[in-house]
Each structure stands twice: as structure tokens, then as C-alpha cells.
Design brief:
With 706 residues, this protein is an alpha/beta fold. It has five domains: 95 residues, no CATH class; 159 residues, Rossmann fold; 104 residues, Immunoglobulins (Immunoglobulin-like, Sandwich); 234 residues, Class I glutamine amidotransferase (GATase) domain (Rossmann fold); 72 residues, Sandwich (Immunoglobulin-like), CATH 2.60.40. 21% of the residues lie in helices and 34% in strands. The strands form nine sheets. The protein has an eight-stranded mixed beta sheet. A five-stranded parallel beta sheet has the order 4-3-5-6-33, sandwiched between helices. α6 links the parallel β15 and β16.
């Protein structure tokens, strides 16, 4: 509690009226004063006494309850302080030092606010400050202390912000002045590339905090876990890396530049952290317009099924030939009336065969159109990585069957005796087909408890499956759709020519378009349709592993290799009914940035873990440059406190004095208070004013009467 005396007025009349009366009194006195008449000054004193009585001067005594000043301490808890060497520990030690020193100041209350991780927005120190100031009266704020590395990303750009009039903002930073940080800065990194072409990465290796950036640094590139490639790159200048896109799907590129080393014994020569010495880039390989060769044989009701499907895909360039007339037919029709162009057999099946991504034979019979050497070329095309789809009907049986040609060596099934089965049936998904991505989850498919709701077909070709996976079955469980991998390529065999009935809606129809689309894209190696696949991705600091397999057994464990080489084994678990379509998954923490590798013993997958907050890792030095304009504008100071034990002395200073000095920083003394009581003593009470006025009037009369 404190007591304070003050002098004030409580006028009886309005101030303007008292001023007017004062002017009249002055006019009345002016002639007497000019004549230097006797008693003029006594008359002036009487007028002043009257005006003073009307103003009612009084002595006011206030009883005050003082309120402590408030010092606000902001503690940076963002990622940039956690990864830099010793910065996080130094900030925590400095926080304890500040709390202890302010605790020794009388009438100062300390409030501590943590600055949380700001996601991709970086360190939001001033947003946290605004929230904290909402609960602090402006008249009590003595100063703001910011414990941070200075890497703040929401500094007001106009430079006019201040926490309050005369309130200093002090920046206290870990480490020491002159820190150095090496980083890789990506200038351009395409998110996708065309298979068969190359993409270019543009980057700069920089040494932040070094006046002149010269010399070379060793950059190591590793692609999808392959053998590393090391090259020298100039420091401070743009460097370009050309990468060929060899396959569809994601590729993970891991770029690491060597850690900067300082002179022996020079702790400041090295860099504060090597976290931003690594950049991981994911590039998705996509195919350009796919080239498909469709060869149709004998005309039939479903001849246009494949053509409509492939023409509807804007990413497909279709070359379509239909064999309308067998070569043995001779009706003496002139050659110039048979066709517009001759069938370019040699050009298609020898010269440009490997330019096609997919070859489709639709009810094609071997009637001498394609010599055995060309059919052998197609088989070698498949073994070398090509894709072949064969949709057959009655022509698959007998002497004209493709199964009896060199192409039959890559077909997964051969017809048996009495192969043509004309019988109504509903196609159904086989047990392996329920796990295969081509047929898994098709609308209306059969389950363990229900039959398929699809429309019926009326013909199938009975075959003996020699290889591959039967994903759909026909009448009596006979193979209907067989998928196979041959060498580096793939083959699909559709053993019925009645799929067109679904497109016409016969008997309820079926998922004709989706089934054919999936089959064609599986043949062309669409990554999402791989039946044996292992993938990994990182979401919110968690490594998500997904495995797909036709194997119905228990999934194996996977081995996870962290960026630092540490390994761990994590079990996979099935999801959903029937093994979740052959899927199994697992999760594991993945906090460290870099390249994560997952293996199930047969396949490997890679995931790129980038820093969760790229702005935080752009510069890991303790640097006041961002905040310094506001620190200067508020009269504050920027200080380094080393490992947390060199926090400057904190003083309480009065208004008008500097808030910083050599070895110390100041908090403004605000002296805010609450008035708890007021006692007023009139200086001209009526009982005193009337005798005084009467006495002065008598003295003035006697003086003038002489």
C-alpha cells in the first residue's frame, strides 16, 4: 500500500464561466492599475480570492495498491532449435537463468509462453506474442524477452510493430556469433518425368555465415537404394543433375552433401547441424501416350469392344487393323478393290514391333497372314518386356489356333479336346483373383457367401492352364481370364468372346469396361495394379508400409532401415476380409529426415522423409537479422548466451532511461496501481473564505480612503 498527495480543483461553476468572470475582474482592475490607485492590489487579491473560492482548490490524498510489472518470456520450441547442435539445451538452461534473475526483482511478475512448432508456416513467434498480450494489461507490460535462434518467420514486414510504448523487445540467442551452416537448396525439382526421358534437378550448395563461398564439396546421390554416385559440386553456384526416368512409378532420389569441417580445434569452423545437408526428392515416372496395336480377326458381334475401350483412353495411341478376308479366298476380285492399303506385316511385326507398349489379338486365326518368323518376333517381344493380350473364340481350337504357332510358347494355356463349350454361365472371380488387383473388388463380384450378380455368357474355350494365374473362371470352374508374366513381359488370355454382352446390358450386364481397363493397364505395368508389390510412404512422422501379394499365407515381417543405417523388424498384419485383397500393412515411427528403406526379403521399397517444416531447416544458425529491426525500434538488445550460462544481467529501469547496456538488459518500470481510497481537503472552505474576503475588502477600503 502507498499514499500519494495531489492538488486539484473541483469548480462550482463551469470553467468557461469562471474564466469569463476572471476577464471581467481584470477589466474592472485595469483602470485602477493604470492610475496606480491606492488599494488596487488589495482589490485584485479580493477578486482572486473570489475566483479561487469558485474553483474550490483542494488537496487530495490517494491510497494506492501497486500492481507488479509483467515481463513476458517467449521460449522457442520449434524444430530449428531442436536439431541444431546444443541450441535446445542452451535455450532451456537460459530459461532457468532468466526465471531466477527476474525472480530477484521486486514488483516484477514473469509469464512464460512456449512458441510451438508451426508446421509449414515456420516459427510463429509474433503470433504467439499477440495471443499472450491479449491477457496482459498494456500498462503493466515491462518488456518482452525472446529466447530463440532468431529464425522467426512471421516478423511484421512494415517494421512498426511494438509491444507497447517504451516497452523493449530483447532477443536472447543460443550459441555464439559467427555460426556457420551448410545446406542444399533446391532450385528446381520436377515432381514427375516421362519414362524413357530425363529430368533435371537444379540445386545450390551454400555455406551460410561464410563471407566468401568458394571451393568444392562432395555430393552423394543414391537412387532407390542403388549404389551411391559421388561427384564434386561448387559451393555457392548452381549445379545441375540429369536423371533418366527408367520406369513408371515413384523413384526416390537421396542427395547428401558432406558435412563442413572447421580447422582443428576450431569449434566455430564447423557447421551447427548437418540436417539440412540432405535433400530427398520423389519423382513419379509416368508414361507418355501409350502405343497399342490391335489386330482383329474374323468379324464378330464383340469386335469393337477393345477398340472402343482403347479409343476412349486419351493417353492411348491406337493402331487398329481388321483382317476381313482370309488370303486363301479367291473370288477374282481385283486387288485395287480389296483394300485401301496392304496389311503392313513386316513394318508392324519386325521393324516397329518394339515401339508398341501393348499388342492385342482379338479372335485372330493363323491363316498365313503372319509367317512363323513374325510370330516368333512377337514371342521374343513379350520375353523382352512387351505386353500381349489375346482374346479368343472358336478360332483358338483347331489348326488355325495361335496355340500351335511359335506364339503359343508364351501363352499360359492350351485348348483341350472338345474345347468349345456352349453353355450359359456367370463369370466368377477365382480365389487367387479375389487377391489380384485386376479383379479384386469388381462391382457385383461373387463372395464366399454369394454368387456374382453379373449377366451370363454363353461360350467359353476349355483349356489346360500351363502357367500364370487364373483370376476368373467360367463354366465348371474352367479358366476364363489367365494372367502371366513371361520373362520381362506380361500376357493376358481371355478365353471367351462374349464379354461384349456386358456392354450391351444383357441379363444385367457387368463391369466390362473396368475389367478390360484394369487388364490392359496391368499388362502395361501400371504401378497401382501390381499383384506382388511393396510400397512405403511417410505421413505425419509415421512410416506406412503396404504389401500386396497373391500368397494367402501369413505375411512376413519387414525390415526397416533408417537413414542412419539402424534396422528394425516390424510384423505385417492383414486388413479386411479375405486378407484385404492380398494386402498387409504396418506402421512405424519415422522422425529422422532422409531415405527410409523397407524390405520383405524379396522386394524393397523406399520412402522420402523430408523435414516436416522446410522453413525451419533452411537456416539453422542463431542469427538476429530477421528480428533486429524491431529490437532496435523498441530500444531492446540482441545478445548471445552461449550454452545458456551467459545470460545478461536483468535490471528494472525507469521511464526515459536506456533499456540496455554493457552486460545487462532492462525491463521498463511501469508503476501501475489501483486507487483503493481518496480523501480530499478543501483549501478554501466557506468558513475561511468569508472572513478572508471581508478582511481584504476592509483593508482595500481603508487604503482607498486615505
Amino acid at each position: 500500500m502507498q499514499t500519494a498527495l495531489a492538488f486539484d480543483f473541483a469548480p462550482i461553476l463551469p470553467v468557461w464561466l469562471i474564466l469569463a468572470l476572471g476577464a471581467l475582474c481584470l477589466l474592472a482592475l485595469l483602470p485602477a492599475l493604470l492610475r496606480r490607485a491606492r488599494g488596487a492590489w488589495w482589490r485584485a487579491l479580493a477578486f482572486l480570492l473570489v475566483l479561487g473560492a469558485l474553483s474550490q482548490p483542494r488537496l487530495v490524498e490517494q491510497t494506492r495498491e501497486t500492481r507488479p510489472d509483467i515481463a513476458l518470456l517467449l521460449v522457442d520450441r520449434s524444430d530449428s532449435t531442436r536439431v541444431a547442435a546444443h541450441h535446445d539445451a542452451a535455450i532451456e538452461a537460459a530459461r532457468r537463468q532468466v526465471e531466477a534473475r527476474i525472480g530477484r526483482l521486486r514488483e516484477v511478475e514473469l509469464r512464460v509462453v512456449d512458441i510451438p512448432e508451426g508446421g509449414n508456416q515456420g516459427t510463429r513467434a509474433f503470433a504467439a506474442l499477440e495471443r499472450a498480450l491479449a491477457d496482459i494489461p498494456a500498462t503493466r507490460l515491462a518488456g518482452v524477452l525472446l529466447l530463440s535462434d532468431g529464425q522467426v518467420h512471421d516478423v511484421p514486414t512494415d517494421g512498426t510493430w511494438a509491444p507497447g510504448e517504451g516497452v523493449p523487445l530483447h532477443l536472447l540467442m543460443p550459441g555464439r556469433q559467427g555460426e556457420v551452416d551448410r545446406r542444399i537448396r533446391l532450385l528446381e525439382a520436377p515432381g514427375f518425368g516421362i519414362v524413357g526421358r530425363s529430368v533435371e534437378l537444379r540445386l545450390i550448395v551454400e555455406d551460410l555465415g561464410v563471407p566468401t563461398q568458394t571451393g568444392q564439396a562432395q555430393l552423394t546421390l543414391r537412387r532407390d537404394g542403388q549404389a551411391p554416385i559421388t561427384e564434386s559440386v561448387p559451393i555457392g553456384r548452381e549445379h545441375r543433375i540429369t536423371l533418366p526416368i527408367e520406369r513408371a512409378g515413384p523413384s526416390v532420389i537421396d542427395l547428401v552433401v558432406e558435412t563442413r569441417q572447421g580447422p582443428a580445434g576450431d569449434r566455430q569452423g564447423g557447421e551447427v547441424s548437418d540436417v539440412n545437408n540432405r535433400v530427398v526428392v520423389a519423382i513419379n515416372g509416368v508414361r507418355d501416350r501409350l502405343r497399342v496395336l490391335l489386330v482383329s480377326g474374323e468379324p464378330h458381334a464383340g469386335e469393337r469392344t477393345w477398340r472402343r475401350l482403347l479409343k476412349a483412353d486419351p493417353g492411348v495411341d491406337l493402331v487398329h487393323f481388321t483382317i476381313l478376308r482370309p488370303p486363301e479366298k479367291d473370288d477374282l476380285t481385283p486387288l485395287n478393290e480389296l483394300a485401301l492399303i496392304a496389311f503392313p506385316v513386316r513394318e508392324l511385326f519386325q521393324v516397329k514391333l518394339r515401339d508398341f507398349d501393348l499388342v492385342v489379338f482379338d479372335r485372330f486365326a493363323n491363316r498365313g497372314i503372319l509367317p512363323p518368323s513374325y510370330l516368333r518376333n512377337i514371342a521374343e517381344y513379350v520375353r523382352g518386356g512387351g505386353a500381349l493380350l489375346v482374346s479368343v473364340g472358336p478360332e483358338f481350337v483347331g489348326g488355325t489356333s495361335l496355340a500351335g504357332t511359335p506364339l503359343g510358347a508364351v501363352l499360359p494355356a492350351r485348348p483341350v479336346q472338345q474345347a468349345i463349350l456352349d453353355q450359359a454361365f456367370r463369370p466368377r472371380i477365382s480365389i487367387p483373383g479375389s487377391r489380384h488387383p485386376v479383379t479384386e473388388g469388381l462391382t457385383g463380384a461373387n463372395t464366399e457367401a454369394t454368387e456374382a450378380s453379373w449377366g451370363r455368357w454363353y461360350r467359353t474355350i476349355r483349356t489346360e492352364a500351363r502357367a500364370g494365374t487364373t483370376v476368373m473362371e467360367g463354366a465348371g470352374g474352367a479358366p476364363l481370364l489367365v494372367l502371366d508374366r513371361v520373362g520381362q513381359g506380361r500376357v493376358a488370355l481371355m478365353l471367351s468372346d462374349h464379354i461384349w454382352l456386358w456392354s450391351r446390358g444383357h441379363d444385367g450386364g457387368g463391369p466390362q469396361q473396368e475389367l478390360l481397363r484394369r487388364t490392359a493397364h496391368w499388362l502395361m505395368r501400371e504401378p497401382e495394379l501390381e499383384e506382388e508389390d511393396l510400397t512405403a510412404r511417410i505421413e505425419a512422422g509415421r512410416l506406412m508400409v503396404n504389401r500386396r501379394s497373391l500368397d494367402a499365407g501369413a505375411p512376413p515381417e519387414v525390415t526397416i532401415t533408417a537413414p542412419d543405417g539402424a534396422t528394425s523388424r516390424v510384423p505385417l498384419s492383414h486388413g479386411g476380409a479375405n486378407g484385404g485383397g492380398g494386402r498387409a500393412s504396418a506402421e512405424a515411427p519415422a522422425a529422422a529426415p532422409g531415405l527410409w528403406q523397407v524390405s520383405d526379403g524379396r522386394r524393397q521399397a523406399f520412402a522420402a522423409a523430408m523435414p516436416a517444416n522446410p522453413p525451419e531447416f533452411a537456416d539453422l544458425r542463431a542469427d538476429p537479422a530477421r528480428v533486429q529491426p524491431l529490437v532496435t525500434a523498441t530500444g531492446g538488445a540482441s545478445r548471445w548466451f552461449g550454452d545458456g550460462t551467459s545470460v545478461p544481467e536483468i535490471r528494472s529501469v525507469s521511464a526515459g532511461r536506456d533499456a540496455q547496456g554493457s552486460g545487462w538488459i532492462g525491463l521498463r518500470r511501469r508503476e501501475d496501481h489501483t486507487v483503493t481510497g481518496i480523501a480530499a481537503l478543501p483549501l478554501l472552505p466557506p468558513w475561511l473564505m468569508l472572513p478572508l474576503l471581508l478582511g481584504i475588502a476592509i483593508v482595500a477600503w481603508r487604503s482607498e480612503a486615505r
